């Protein structure tokens, strides 16, 4: 065996490919670390905010991720261990040698395995040396931890290569072909994708961690809630699910190796059943009659031959058993994914066609690319592998015929796969009882939008096989191409014209279809088709015929193959490529001012450097807004004429006014009601006007302005979606803003450092007087009066906040006049679409839902949510300030709902197609919940709004979360709340693990969503559970009574904290600090539970628990604190229904409790409903052992 091993290693290490692979992964690892370390100005690679680039988790991610990308190289090297002997027809030398089977297979296997380890050791080496490259920012580096570079190899790379190597090696050894090896690698990748998909659902994460052969899902499960401090210093341990995953897959690998060892035979090359049958049959020797055939190679016959050859290539591929296997695997994958269509809170959506296409098409796309890469090699090399190439090469047919027939077959194969996607999608819809199949949308999306993109890849894959003239080197080149698609954007090369075949993503909306976005797709398809023509022409010239394979000979033959047709083809390719490219570049870069991420950062940095000096300048405040908005959906433009009434609320005259223009809207005219001169006009939209005379304290003035919004360029290829054919939605951010805007500044520490800006807090301190002088919604107004007239096309309804006072038609257009009789924030929106309107009411408040026809699924849930919310909020917080609540649907170009005064724009994708099963205990009625949250903002933000300081969002988002939770609890009970809180806990723990700067307590959060949303839900629910819902609501009523519609100085989060402190009993006051003013975590665990029958059908349950309380710092560093808390203990039955909930005073780390329950217990534990913020919530309950 050692002789074979030495021979194998010598062969491998004298091959140039081994060193090419080593250097490639070494360079990739160094570039990856350099990009993460800030060496490239436009790079966006990150391991998450404060996580060091050489932290154990970061190094593990780098090594394992790049290792996954090398799966094809693993397949190529391990699969060819024995297969290469058959390929080179030298198998009989080894099969007849005095070798044992274990010596031959063991030596080959170990040689390939050790070579792989040597190659992939380059990743760890590159990751280590990459930290010392010039340009790496010191603040992104942590201490070097040697184990971080070795353990990923011991725990991940080495076991994976053993498992995958066993599979690939034995498939190659048994079948003597590489295609089944590559097919198996695709199957592994599909399994990985299924595991990743399952991991998105809380209920399936354990299963996902076990079935992922790569082990990455298990690593994610182990580290998913690690804090920044843990990620920076803690090594990824081989324990729990990660250990179980490794043992399971090593066992599977051993079984595969054993089966392959058993199947392998030294007797002969494996032959198919058909070949065996033919070989064993007696062949008759009857004379055959000679038929004289005269081949016809005229143009018409060549075309017929092209069709026949294309069909032959396609048929041979499709009928192949390996293709059938991979196809069936792909079909199973799509059906396995079907349960995740549009899932939110574990609840599915109706399988509308666009959602099915997004799920299946997006996931299956990788599958198609892999098949395209593999079968390009099989098609180009088919004749040479069968050793009949010279026979066919001698035929008097032009080079284009074999080349284009193979290309056409490959593209046809892609079309078949897309047809399978369509068929599976329709079957999934029908199986789920959904019959609105939209066959036209399937055809357009798959065959017009996506097939050309895949065809471009097919051209490249075929061309590389021809030009490189080495099957596996061409596969390797395609891998580099796919890596470039990931790496280039991460390195700042984001422009879609950088990389061949890049087509901008297009989003389909039921409201607006593909809209204007499809034109850009067509132009890019046309642009890249020019490059494809050039590649095809090059491949025709270099097509290998005969035995000439050296570059000098191939180039000489290529020069002889140049004809008038090839010259015309080259000319056409260049004309299309340069012509379409020039038009695209002009429209995208010149007219639409294309900017990558770095350019946008640079603009923000320059804005701050140039104009921050004006931040403290006294500026007038907007007190009245009057708008005349004309929306033209058919041409995607809008004309806006507005006026602001401004007042000087300061104690000094204002001589200079600063105005900011939105990038998407052009200021056509701006006129004050007094003389003014423009002093600054910056390309970033910053203007300065000198007033003559100055605006005196208390004095008012009017600013009239006219804005134009229209697509820029002759093609209208801009990526904006403000004004569209059906579903226009834009807000006050499009309007001129007064004064310097700190919101335009860079907030990320790394980005600020990159541009030479000093570190800054994301928000001002909680009690900062300057911060409390403005609300956190806008810094140029307090409360304003509002009036708007909006016009649109005759078939649409235009909407703005307020009551509709008047509607009329003029010159074929519809006009709507909206007014508000109560002051509002300077925060409003305009919408226009072909709406159907559903109306209802609650007491004297009208309810209106403006929606897209066909989206009736959840309207009743939304109306029920509005009614329940109005009833609860008016009873507990105070009256609703308007006479209408309006929900307005908008296209899924954005995925949120947002509350404006009496109007709630609501994305079609998050509530209008939810498929909530009220009988399913796992389903959450999120259309009801989201509606309740947005209605709550009519109190929390639109009545009480915080100053622009830390903790501002507690008074809006956290209280809206609480309000919606109470409405939901009232409607659906505690059982649903238990599941909802588990999702909120997951969101908070994961969010803090991804923190980019520092985690702060809830009352001082810096507009951090995972804190004010997810943690806010947990905090407020726990508080009301401990002190009572009525007491919490009483405190909130006091907050509204004291601060509703209050201007500067605005309240901060102390207003809420102090109000809650007043109503909290003495023995629960510790909760105020724990929940609002510090970061408090628990490590609670149920150790054991036993039960025995008692009298009266009861059971005596004995429960032993462990509890620990921790305080965390800004980066997650923890310290243990004394435990003196009231915590729930509970017992559940086999269906998860509570048999007992009892609150106990916990003051020791370990305690025992004895409880009597009515009903047979199944589980018992501490904090059974996950109300507390627990590191490991899954161990709170333990199975009850019956005695």
Automatic annotation (TrEMBL):
**Subcellular location, record wording:** Membrane
Q: Where is the composition biased (Basic and acidic residues)?
A: 747-770
Instruction: Give me the segments passing through the membrane.
Output: 20-47, 59-78, 110-130, 150-171, 178-195, 247-266, 320-337, 357-377, 407-431, 451-468, 480-503, 523-544, 565-586
Query: Which GO molecular function entries does the Swiss-Prot or TrEMBL record give?
Result: metallopeptidase activity; zinc ion binding
Q: Which domain of life is it from?
A: Bacteria
- What residue spans carry the region label Disordered? 747-771
Which keywords are on file for this protein?
Membrane, Transmembrane, Transmembrane helix
Where's the Peptidase M1 membrane alanine aminopeptidase domain?
870-1063
State the SUPFAM superfamilies in the record. Metalloproteases ('zincins'), catalytic domain (SSF55486)
Classification via InterPro entries: ABC2_TM, Peptidase_M1_dom, Peptidase_M4/M1_CTD_sf
- Matching Gene3D superfamilies: Neutral Protease Domain 2
One of its Pfam families is Peptidase_M1
Q: How does it sit in the membrane?
A: Multi-pass membrane protein
| Domain ABC-2 type transporter transmembrane, chain residue ranges per copy | 59-194
Q: What's the protein here called?
A: Peptidase M1 membrane alanine aminopeptidase domain-containing protein
């Amino acid at each position: 065996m050692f002789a074979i091993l030495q021979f194998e290693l010598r062969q491998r290490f004298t091959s140039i490919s081994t060193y090419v692979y080593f250097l490639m992964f070494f360079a990739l690892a160094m570039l990856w670390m350099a990009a993460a370390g800030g060496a490239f100005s436009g790079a966006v690679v990150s391991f998450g905010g404060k996580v060091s680039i050489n932290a154990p988790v970061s190094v593990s991610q780098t090594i394992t991720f790049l290792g996954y990308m090398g799966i094809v190289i693993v397949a190529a090297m391990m699969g060819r261990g024995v297969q290469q002997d058959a390929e080179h027809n030298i198998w009989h030398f080894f099969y007849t040698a005095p070798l044992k089977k274990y010596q031959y297979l063991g030596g080959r296997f170990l040689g390939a395995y050790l070579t792989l380890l040597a190659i992939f050791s380059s990743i760890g080496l590159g990751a280590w040396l990459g930290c010392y490259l010039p340009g790496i920012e010191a603040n992104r580096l942590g201490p070097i931890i040697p184990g971080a570079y070795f353990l990923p190899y011991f725990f991940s790379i080495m076991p994976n290569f053993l498992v995958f190597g066993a599979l690939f090696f034995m498939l190659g050894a048994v079948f003597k072909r590489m295609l089944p090896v590559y097919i198996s690698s695709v199957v592994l990748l599909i399994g990985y994708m299924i595991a990743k998909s399952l991991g998105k659902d809380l209920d399936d994460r354990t299963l996902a961690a076990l079935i992922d052969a790569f082990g990455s899902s298990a690593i994610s499960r182990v580290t998913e809630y690690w804090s920044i401090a843990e990620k920076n210093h803690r090594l990824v341990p081989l324990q729990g699910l990660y250990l179980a995953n490794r043992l399971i897959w090593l066992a599977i690998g051993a079984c595969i190796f054993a089966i392959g060892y058993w199947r392998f035979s030294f007797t002969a090359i494996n032959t198919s059943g058909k070949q065996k049958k033919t070989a064993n049959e007696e062949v008759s020797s009857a004379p055959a009659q000679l038929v004289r055939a005269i081949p016809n190679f005229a143009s018409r016959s060549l075309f017929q031959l092209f069709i026949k050859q294309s069909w032959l290539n396609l048929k041979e591929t499709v009928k192949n058993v390996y293709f059938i296997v991979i196809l069936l695997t792909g079909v199973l994958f799509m059906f396995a994914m079907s349960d995740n269509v549009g899932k939110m809170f574990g609840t599915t959506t109706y399988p509308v066609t666009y959602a099915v296409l997004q799920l299946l098409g997006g996931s299956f796309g990788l599958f198609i690319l892999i098949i395209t890469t593999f079968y390009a090699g099989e098609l180009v090399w088919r004749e040479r592998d069968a050793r009949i190439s010279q026979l066919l090469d001698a035929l008097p047919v032009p080079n284009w015929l074999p080349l284009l027939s193979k290309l056409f077959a490959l593209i046809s194969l892609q079309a078949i796969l897309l047809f399978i996607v369509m068929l599976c999608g329709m079957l999934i819809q029908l199986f789920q009882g959904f019959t609105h199949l939209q066959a036209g949308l399937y055809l357009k999306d798959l065959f017009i939008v996506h097939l050309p993109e895949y065809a471009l890849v097919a051209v490249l894959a075929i061309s590389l096989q021809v030009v490189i003239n080495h099957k596996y080197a061409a596969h390797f080149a395609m891998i580099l191409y796919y890596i470039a698609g990931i790496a280039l954007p991460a390195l700042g090369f984001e422009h879609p014209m950088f990389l061949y075949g890049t087509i901008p993503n297009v989003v389909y909306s039921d409201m607006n279809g593909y809209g204007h976005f499809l034109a850009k797709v067509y132009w890019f398809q046309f642009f890249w088709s020019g490059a494809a023509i050039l590649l095809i022409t090059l491949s025709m010239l270099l097509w290998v015929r005969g035995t000439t394979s050296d570059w000098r000979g191939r180039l000489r033959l290529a020069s002889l193959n140049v004809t008038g047709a090839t010259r015309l083809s080259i000319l056409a390719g260049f004309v299309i490529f340069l012509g379409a490219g020039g038009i695209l570049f002009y429209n995208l870069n010149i007219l639409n001012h294309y900017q990558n991420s770095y350019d946008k950062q640079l603009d923000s940095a320059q804005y701050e450097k140039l104009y921050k000096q004006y931040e403290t300048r006294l500026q007038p405040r907007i007190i009245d807004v009057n708008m005349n908005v004309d929306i033209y959906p058919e041409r995607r433009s809008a004309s806006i004429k507005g006026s602001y009434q401004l007042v000087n609320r300061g104690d000094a005259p204002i001589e200079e006014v600063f105005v900011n223009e939105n990038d998407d809207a052009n200021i056509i005219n701006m006129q004050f009601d007094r003389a003014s001169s423009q002093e600054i006009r910056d390309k970033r939209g910053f203007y300065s006007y000198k007033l003559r005379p100055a605006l005196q304290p208390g004095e008012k003035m009017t600013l009239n302005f006219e804005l134009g919004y229209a697509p820029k360029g002759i093609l209208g290829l801009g990526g904006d979606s403000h004004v569209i054919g059906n579903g226009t939605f834009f807000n006050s951010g499009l309007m001129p803003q007064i004064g310097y805007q700190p919101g335009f500044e860079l907030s990320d520490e790394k980005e600020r450092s990159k541009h030479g800006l000093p570190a800054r807090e994301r928000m001002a301190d909680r009690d900062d007087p300057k911060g409390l002088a403005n609300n956190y919604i806008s810094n140029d107004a307090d409360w304003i009066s509002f009036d708007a007239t909006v016009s649109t096309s005759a078939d649409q309804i235009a909407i703005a906040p307020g009551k509709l006072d008047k509607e009329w038609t003029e010159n074929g257009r519809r006009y709507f006049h909206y007014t508000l009789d109560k002051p509002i924030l300077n925060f409003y929106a305009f919408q226009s679409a072909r709406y159907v309107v559903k109306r209802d009411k609650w007491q004297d408040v009208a309810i209106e839902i403006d929606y897209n026809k066909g989206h009736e699924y959840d309207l009743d849930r939304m109306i029920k949510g509005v009614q329940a919310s109005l009833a609860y909020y008016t009873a507990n917080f105070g009256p609703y300030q308007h006479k209408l609540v309006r929900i307005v649907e908008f296209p899924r170009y954005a995925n949120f709902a947002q509350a404006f005064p009496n109007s709630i724009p609501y994305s079609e994708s998050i509530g209008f197609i939810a498929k909530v099963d009220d009988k399913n205990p796992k389903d959450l009625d999120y259309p009801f919940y989201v509606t309740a949250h947005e209605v709550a903002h009519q109190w929390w933000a639109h009545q009480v709004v915080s100053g622009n300081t830390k903790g501002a969002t507690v008074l809006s988002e956290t209280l809206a979360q609480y309000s919606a939770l109470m409405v939901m609890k009232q409607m659906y009970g505690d059982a649903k709340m238990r599941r909802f809180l588990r999702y909120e806990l997951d969101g908070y723990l994961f969010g803090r693990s991804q923190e980019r700067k520092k985690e702060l307590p809830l009352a001082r959060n810096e507009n951090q969503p995972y804190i004010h949303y997810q943690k806010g839900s947990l905090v407020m629910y726990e508080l009301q559970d401990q002190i009572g819902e009525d007491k919490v609501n009483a405190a909130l009523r006091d907050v509204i009574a004291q601060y509703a519609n209050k201007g500067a100085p605005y309240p901060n989060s102390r207003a809420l904290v102090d109000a809650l402190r007043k109503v909290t009993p003495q023995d629960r006051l510790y909760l105020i600090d724990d929940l609002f003013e510090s970061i408090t975590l628990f490590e609670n665990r149920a150790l054991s539970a036993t039960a025995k029958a008692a009298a009266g059908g009861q059971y005596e349950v004995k429960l032993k628990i462990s509890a620990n309380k921790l305080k965390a710092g800004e980066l997650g560093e923890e310290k243990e604190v004394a435990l003196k808390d009231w915590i729930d203990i509970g017992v559940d039955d086999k269906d998860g229904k509570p048999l007992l909930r009892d609150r106990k005073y916990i003051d020791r780390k370990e305690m025992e409790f004895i409880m009597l329950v009515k009903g047979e217990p199944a589980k018992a534990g501490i904090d059974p409903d996950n109300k507390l913020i627990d590191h490991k919530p899954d161990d709170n309950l333990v199975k009850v052992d019956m005695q």
